[in-house]
Amino acid sequence: MTERKEISVALAGNPNCGKSSLFNVLTGSHQKVGNFSGVTIEKHEGYLDYGSYRIRFVDLPGTYSLTPYSPEEIVTRNYLIDERPDVVVNVLEGPNLERNLLLTTQLMEMNIDFLAALNMIDEVEEKGISIDVKQLQRLLGCHIVPTSAKKRTGIDPLLAHIVRVYEKDIEIRKNKLSFRPVIEEAVDEIAGILRREKDLQSADTRWLAIKLLESDREVYHRVQQYPVWVKVELSLQEAMREAAKLYDSDPEMLITEDRHAFIRGAMKECVRFPEERKSTATDYIDMVVLNRLLGLPVFLFVVWAIFQITFTLGSPLMDMLETLFAALSGAIEPLLVNSTLRSIVIDGIIAGVGGVLVFLPNIVLLFIGLSFLEASGYMARAAFVIDKVMHRFGLHGKSFIPMITGFGCSIPAIMATRTLKSPTDRLATILIIPFMSCGAKLPVYVLLAGAFFPPDVAANVMFAVYLLGVVVALLSAKLLKSTVLKCDSEPFVMELPPYRWPTLHSVLFQAKIKAMMYVRKAGTLILAAVLIIWAVSNYPHSEEIDRWAASEASRIEESPLSAVDKKAETESLEYRAQSLQLQHSFAGRVGKVIEPVIKPIGFDWRIGIALVTGLAAKEVVVSTMGTIYALGQTDESSAELATILKNDPSFSRATALSLMVFVLLYIPCVAAVGVMKKEIGEWRPVLLYSAYVLVLAWLLSFVTYRLALVML
Amino acid sequence: MYMKMSELKVGDKAEVTSVKAEHAVRRRILDMGLIKGTRFKVLRVAPFGDPMEIFFKGMYLSLRKSEAEGISVHKIGYAGDGMPMSCDKEGRSCCGEAL
Ligand SMILES: Nc1nc2c(ncn2[C@@H]2O[C@H](COP(=O)(O)OP(=O)(O)OP(=O)(O)O)[C@@H](O)[C@H]2O)c(=O)[nH]1
Ligand SMILES: [Mg+2]
């Protein structure tokens, strides 16, 4: 077989036009798709073998224009300008063509090989919009292929055209957009000056000139280093003066206006809208969802409903899994004759890993709920409704989108802050995202709320914990923004996409991926953590305690007690011996060191150990408690952790509440801390932040514990 | 009647006459297609009175009053409610048709 020719193809377009959807269809990948702007924040690659070609597709973050605005948009611009892919596919949102064409006009100026995918053609037809593709091709000077990533139509023609553009087998002549005379004259003059510079002769001087007139900062920096800059600057000033004199404006504005005028003309020629615009579902839904009075209640209800469903629908499924694991350990136990091995399997793996796995239904439901928010188009609405509140706390409605993502997992949420333009807003948002309680903390709440509160109250206790997280997040943001992170506030200009029904397929698919990730985590990270915990809480083993227990046992045997009393005495002795052994182990000794610090907030050393190991991943809090408490049990049959806790005299409702608050607020898992460092770029804020949350978690747990002791 | 976009009421229809704002913000507003001559309708304001939502060229855009301050407009009519639909006939412009 001959080598396949590799073509690099970039997908570029406005935010939310369906680039990632198209990318997924083309390459069979599973990049995240969502109905709001700024879903994709990094470039992603995928391959497709097509005929004698190997096409490397690159999915880019969406951008409204090639003059970038927020960090994720810079990725796109740099990719298009510096990496020069062989072919650029300009993905257009069909129903929203006019705005999308602005980027197309900028691509037209760029002297690159590109074609357009007229995406969402299904919605275009549904809305009764007719587009004269042939004529539009002539005006834009590029091939246009109607596609629908949703219905998977137009994919083959798109591929065929990509190859044709690559092979320069094109029938459409490139078109050039011309500006009004003042601008054209300035462009010619500046381009002429630039051509005199040897280094720039190979560059596209017309494009550079246009960008200079548009006050593009990066091009400024690039040209400034050459001696011709002095002349260029004079010409630019001259153009400024002319624009002011003739139009009372500036070149940047005039260029934009000319582009829009061109687009307007193209729209007029090629696009027919239905005579009368019918109200759409979006219009009706928004009358309620964005209503001045109902907007906020609807928002609160939506979030409440997600957590309610997570708990109430998840609980029966969770019970089933628990029964399953109990049956499993019952079946395995007699087979394991070696007592050490038996303890590893029963107290370690089943109590620890199984104890985490039982929450799988809750986790999946939570993610289904969140992905529904993301896919439906509600995210941008939430940002709209909540912006004013966020503004009060020094933040931005757009910060709220990553915050909601943070209910799932902090890591993608922290990365999603790249859609924020202002660096201080971004830093503040990164630092408060961990307060948005993530999915990994859910097992802790379900366990504790479920064990210590009746089912109808438990879901609301959980919701209260989540709310506390949001409140702490907002207050911390206020604190940050009014002290260290003062100054520039992010402007708020945001598109609200029409509502779109997530397809059942995509929701279920997402759920499957999340479920698999959770199981994998349980089978790797959590399993490893559990084995370590088992080892450090079993060793070193004290012979002395064994001897003491043996002598005590024989003393009881010889005493003149009744058989019933003897049995009770023996049991309590065994229990004491077990806990002495635990305290003698490594884990016990370390726990004893921490204990004085956490005693005032109601925790004993066992919880202390669980909190330390919880830094690896928050689920480990549950699995550690599962193992340690199971080891402390005297009868070998493993009871569920919830039952053990309920019967443990040192564990009360107040302890449960205090622990939930502490887990909510204290240091996030190492992976999240790592991503924080990566996104912020330095350690100092992250370390300061860690100290801050430890103190805060302790204080609020203290208050919770003391209040609960008095009130419950 | 000439005024700032932030002074418009829900249901008002208007045409942009100029955009003045800090450079990057202006850039973004222009990129969204809100340029001189664009007709739009004010659909609603958010629960606490800010931001506002407008409809033009077939799309829904929200922006804060502070951003809307920089946009001068010429009010051309009133369509009563917060539905984009009601801008038929003469207001069809704000749904994507020519000015
Ligand atoms: N009806 C319809 N919807 C589509 C089509 N393609 C994408 N969508 C929907 O449009 C929305 C945006 O899709 P994405 O693929 O995430 O868009 P994107 O361009 O990658 O967005 P960013 O990464 O934010 O720039 C999602 O809700 C998709 O389900 C299509 O062909 N038809
Ligand atoms: Mg994307």
Layout of SSEs?
The complex is a heterodimer of chains A (712) and B (99).
Chain A: E1 5-13, H1 19-27, E2 44-50, E3 53-59, H2 71-83, E4 87-93, H3 97-108, E5 114-119, H4 121-126, E6 130-131, H5 133-140, E7 144-146, H6 155-166, H7 181-195, H8 205-213, H9 217-224, H10 229-247, H11 251-270, E8 271-272, H12 281-289, H13 295-312, H14 314-332, H15 339-357, H16 360-376, H17 378-392, H18 400-405, H19 410-416, H20 423-432, H21 442-452, H22 455-482, E9 493-496, H23 504-538, H24 543-558, H25 563-584, H26 586-598, H27 605-613, H28 619-632, H29 641-647, H30 653-665, H31 670-680, H32 683-711
Parallel strand pairs in A: 1-3, 1-4, 4-5, 5-7
Antiparallel strand pairs in A: 2-3, 6-8
Chain B: E1 2-4, E2 12-19, H1 23-31, E3 39-45, E4 52-56, E5 59-63, H2 65-68, E6 71-78
Shape of chain A: elongated
**Distance separating the two termini of chain B:** 18 Å
CATH topology of chain B: SH3 type barrels
What is the strand arrangement across the widest sheet of chain A? 2-3-1-4-5-7
The residue ranges of chain A in which pLDDT falls below 50 over 5 or more consecutive positions are none
Instruction: Work out the strand percent of chain B.
Output: 35-45%
**Based on helices, strands and strand pairing, what is the structural class of chain A?**
alpha/beta
Ligands bound here?
guanosine-5'-triphosphate, magnesium ion
If you compute it from the alpha carbons, what radius of gyration of chain A comes out, rounded to the nearest whole angstrom?
31 Å
Largest interface: A-B, 51 and 47 residues
Number of helices of chain A: 32
Using DSSP, what is the number of strands of chain B?
Answer: 6
Helical/strand content category of chain B: mainly beta
Characterize the structure shown.
The complex is a heterodimer of chains A (712) and B (99). Chain A is α/β, with parallel strands linked by helices and 712 residues long. Among the domains of chain A are: 5-166, Rossmann fold; 181-272, Helix Hairpins, CATH 1.10.287; 541-669 and 681-711, no CATH class. Chain A contains 32 helices and 9 strands. Chain A has a 6-stranded mixed β-sheet, sandwiched between helices. In chain A, strand 2 and strand 3 (53-59) form a beta hairpin. In chain A, helix 22 (455-482) runs parallel beside helix 30 (653-665). The radius of gyration of chain A is 31 Å and the shape is elongated. Chain B is mainly β and 99 residues long. Chain B has one domain (2-77): SH3 type barrels. Chain B contains 2 helices and 6 strands, in the order E-E-H-E-E-E-H-E. Chain B has helices at 23-31, 65-68, and strands at residues 2-4, 12-19, 39-45, 52-56, 59-63, 71-78. Chain B has a 6-stranded antiparallel β-sheet with strand order 1-6-2-3-4-5. Chain B is globular and about 35 Å long. Chain B starts with a strand and ends in a 21-residue tail after the last strand. The model of chain B is unreliable at 85-99 (pLDDT under 50). The chains are: A alpha/beta (712), B mainly beta (99). Strand 9 (493-496) of chain A pairs antiparallel with strand 5 (59-63) of chain B, so a sheet runs across the interface. Bound molecules: guanosine-5'-triphosphate and magnesium ion. The site of guanosine-5'-triphosphate has 26 residues of chain A, from helix 1 and helix 4. Guanosine-5'-triphosphate (GTP) binds at residues 13, 15-21, 33-35, 37-40, 61-62, 119-120, 122-123, 148-150, 375, 500 of chain A.
